[in-house]
UniProtKB/TrEMBL annotation:
Annotated protein name in UniProt: Unannotated protein
InterPro entries noted in UniProt: Dimeric_a/b-barrel, Tscrpt_reg_AsnC/Lrp_C
Organism annotation: freshwater metagenome
Residue span, Transcription regulator AsnC/Lrp ligand binding domain: 6-76
A Pfam family assignment: AsnC_trans_reg
Gene3D superfamilies reported for this sequence: 3.30.70.920
Amino acid sequence: MITAFVLIESERTALAKLGETLRSIAGIAEVYSVTGAWDFVAIVRVGRHEQLADLLASEVAALEGVARSQTMVAFDSFSDFDLEQLFVDKS
């Protein structure tokens, strides 16, 4: 499982709706509205790097209201929660 954190700066006119729009994209697990230099942090969880690249280029960057973004790919997780189990296909 690939986990990435995407920092997103929004155009002011898109602030009210961009969070929900981002959250509706398959592969984006969570979206947070934050303070500071960025307006949103999206947590992306996908199976392959190619899926991440496609999601960022075809979905996020193409959204109206996204001024710029920066992506950080996680190497490891230091958590008490077994996040991998939340995303295992049970079908």
